[in-house]
Amino acid sequence: MIEFPPRLDLANLPTPLTELCNYAGGPADVSIWIKHDELTGMEVSGNKIRKLEFSIAEASLQGCDTLMTCGGIQSNHCRATAVIGARLGLKVHLILRGEKPEVPDGNLLMGYLSGATITYLSQAQWSFHEQKAAELRAEYLRMGSKAFFIPVGASDEIGLWGYIAAAAELKQDFEDLSIDPEYIVCATGSGGTQGGLLVGGKLFDMNAKCVAFNVSDDADYFDRKIKEDVTLWKQRYEIDFDLNSIDIQTAEGYLGPGYGKADPCVFDTIAELARADGIFLDPVYTGKAFHGMVSELNKGEKGAFPGVKNIVFVHTGGLFGVFPQQQNFSFD
Hints:
Layout (H helix, E strand, L loop, with lengths): L16 E3 L11 E6 L11 H14 L4 E7 L3 H13 L2 E7 L8 H8 L3 E5 L7 H14 L4 E4 L9 H18 L5 E6 L3 H12 L5 E6 L4 H19 L11 E3 L12 H14 L8 H12 L12 E6 L17
Parallel strand pairs: 2-10, 3-4, 3-6, 4-5, 7-8, 7-10, 8-9
Antiparallel strand pairs: 1-2
Helix pairs in contact: 1-5, 2-3, 5-6, 6-7, 8-9
């Protein structure tokens, strides 16, 4: 039996697992199930909260009064960290990639409203963001505060626990619903959700294979990143785990123009699912992954999911990311 480290009780768990009833974009003989992690909590909705339960618990153990993290201007993770910090009475400092906009929108607006301090770095400066974080931590220390740094997406050996725990929750869902899905699908941007599901799948003897759709970088990057995170996880928590037992499958071909940018077909898929089942995806993460999943399902045996009858899509949230890109939707 795996022993979990300290965690905070922040998310509304377990989240529902439901079957799509009306959506007709996929094959008729495949049941698509949605793990509703967009319902982990309205203000902090999404997958990031599962990781932050462990990351912020570690910050508390270290006596930190400030949370520091980083990401894109519309980072779901940064927004979630800002909101949780406000709830817990912790100062939050965000380091964001990009230029400060004249009017904040979406996740950025939520971050400002939650009282976060924000530092912007240009794309050219971004490679030095961890160095900037170290400088800010030293500055806080001089002021009598202790800052805890959480990496992009809380995707490290600590945050990995979030979706290891989620895998246990999914296994219980499958037992409750008497289903045995062949595949679990998610978007992957920093690797933590994908890595946690892979490790959790092995720890809890799940039959389902995890397939992730990249919304940034490429398959080689996620292969390296996940192996690094799992190796550090094994070392930090002294866990005997065979790294070679996990099968890292990252399905490429649906990244589109790049991170945070989507092709028109993705916006069409987002609108189609919203009309059919009232489920809202975003153009940065879930929209791309869901579109990729359905596209591969429609290839049949030649696609990424041969022999599939039941498939689970982990809805990792991102609703606030829709609003800054609303001009990309077309309405008749």
